[in-house]
Amino acid sequence: MNLRGGWELIKKSYLGWMASRGFFWTLTFGWMVPSLLYLFVWVAVAGQGQIQGSTRDDFIVYYLCLIMLNQFTYPVCNWTVGDSIRMGRLSDWLLRPLPVMFEAIASDIAMKMVCTPFAVTVTVVLAFFLRPAVHFSPQSVLFFLLAFLLAQVLRFLMAYTLALLALWNSRADALLDLNDSLVFLLAGQVAPIALLPGALRALAAVLPYRYMLGFPIELLIGRLSTTEIWQGFAWQCAWVIGVLFLYRFVWKHGLRHYTSVGG
Amino acid sequence: MTEPHILVRSLSKTYHVPERKEGLLAAMESLVHRRYRDVKAVNDVSFCIEQGEMVGFIGPNGAGKTTIMKVLAGLLYPTSGEVRVEGFVPWERKTEYLRSISMIMANKNRLAWENTTLDSFKVLAAIYRMSHAEFRSVLDELIDLLEIEQLLHKLVRNLSLGERMRCELAAAMLHRPRVLFLDEPTLGLDVSMQLRLRHFLAEYNRRVGATMILTSHYMADVTTLCSRVILIDQGKLLYDGDLTGLAERMAPFKLIRLSVDDSQGQSMREIEGAVLSAKYQVTIIDRADRRLTLRVEKARAAAILTHVLGELPVVDISVEDPPIEAVIDQVYREGVWL
């Protein structure tokens, strides 16, 4: 594996993104706004009482973690890969002795390097003013880190695979928008999964979206039983493997189609 | 017997393209019932190219040149046929193969727009696993050949077209490819820049012994760089050989340039009438002042020359083969009649 090549791609993308950092910080803030809105809604609803066992502080911790996690796991390949296929830049990637996915991974990492300082600053400022009581056990942190890693892989692979559908019809934007909407609804952004209505909660438990955002945070704040933890990890791993197979299928056949119609 | 550096045998490529009639109704109909048409871009093409050869692909727009080049570079799957470059099947895109080739396509950037030229080169050096010493040595050579020292620390987006093309060429050559596919490398460049790039390509070929395939609508690119040309039209290979042979086969005519004495008071109309009264077919392709350029059948040139000398007060006359540019131009405009 050419790690040096991958690292240079990250540096290249980072320098490129940094040249437009104002744009990307605005974009980052845009990603935060829905979570911020729901943070204030749930804090207002909870008041000094509880909603299904969750207090004002629980909602603040949940949404501040969600803002950070959403930032860390948001896949920029949502737009970079589809655009590259449509604009014909994929041909250039195909001519290089490096897996094409490296370019998308490098863009993703570079974007996180550009946006993270901004996201951390906003979150710290919010935490300073809202002052929630926070307590994470070492075991919760450990589980969170593992689930975060898997969430990152799952969210990236899902977006990358959907973006690759542009190999057939050159426009995968609508599908990516739909995917983002489902993440918004079923990953725990509108409300923590436990507060969703029965049918929606059941659906969220089996679809991949909860395992991209909500599940790692639920682990961190220590609200899950041992059985729920292992069930959650089982679903998360199953989705990572499933989407990996889907990616391999889409890439193999998509590339064949792309290289049959003119590149 | 060793295999040629590039082997193409019975290559065909058919595109399956959607089509519809004009208008809103047809557009709506195509939503439920899409029609397709098969376009045969390459039709049973075979050729071999040896190591170090510089070959020009020529032919009108849509002839199939770029399609063949994309198949050779591994960007397209062929419909049928056998292709091997350096012993590799291109569309398998093996890492070793990709490290040995490079392709330059007009108006396509491999340099990162927001980075400096040198940063972009360093990314490529890492991708092609070049050591620092190797990178420095090749870069110094390219700086020397392409005169890009002043451009290394400029942002790519701030380069002029000519500067960017020189840097794109350097980027394409950085890993010292043994096979180069050049699709319109001088498109949009001014004459001086075209000359420099041609010089660079010839020098690179001499130093590295790289095999090069070139398409260009500037015939000077082909005539300067390529001793061999492959003529393609409507997906078929029509000629494979040297330029002189092509001119012989495609242009069975000569050009007669003559100047007429104006002291005898003949009008240009009368002069042209006298020229055209020859019993053989003569085409006047240029007229200026009291000079005419005639296109005549090669076999009849001597007879027409005698006729013209007998009928007109000629003060100067010359008989020439048509320039290759004119031959190719004729082929592109009037079709191929080999």
Q: What keyword list fits this structure?
A:
heterodimer; A: mainly alpha; 12 helices; 76% helix; B: 338 residues; alpha/beta; Rossmann fold; six-stranded mixed sheet; globular
Task: Explain what the structure shows.
The complex is a heterodimer of chains A (263) and B (338). Chain A is mainly α and 263 residues long. Chain A has one domain. Helix content of chain A is 76%, strand content 0%. Chain A contains twelve helices and no strands. Chain A has helices spanning 3-18, 21-46, 56-73, 77-87, 89-94, 101-130, 138-163, 166-169, 173-186, 198-206, 214-220, 226-258. In chain A, helix 7 (138-163) packs parallel to helix 12 (226-258). The longest helix of chain A has 33 residues, at 226-258. Chain A is globular and about 60 Å long. The model of chain A has no long low-confidence stretch (mean pLDDT 87). Chain B is of the alpha/beta class and 338 residues long. Chain B folds into two domains: 6-248, Rossmann fold (3-Layer(aba) Sandwich), CATH 3.40.50.300; 252-321, ACT-like. Chain A, domain 2 (Alpha-Beta Plaits). Helix content of chain B is 38%, strand content 29%. Chain B has helices at residues 24-32, 65-73, 95-100, 117-127, 132-146, 161-173, 191-208, 219-225, 243-250, 268-276, 301-311, 324-334; strands at 6-19, 35-49, 54-58, 80-85, 101-105, 179-183, 211-215, 228-233, 236-242, 253-260, 282-288, 291-297, 314-320. A six-stranded mixed sheet of chain B has the order 5-6-7-3-8-9, with helices on both faces. The longest helix of chain B is centred in the middle third of the chain and has 18 residues, at 191-208. The radius of gyration of chain B is 25 Å and the shape is globular. The mean pLDDT of chain B is 85. Chains A and B meet through helix 1 and helix 5 of A and strand 1, helix 2, helix 3, strand 5 and helix 4 of B.
Give a brief description.
The complex is a heterodimer of chains A (263) and B (338). Chain A is mainly alpha-helical and 263 residues long.
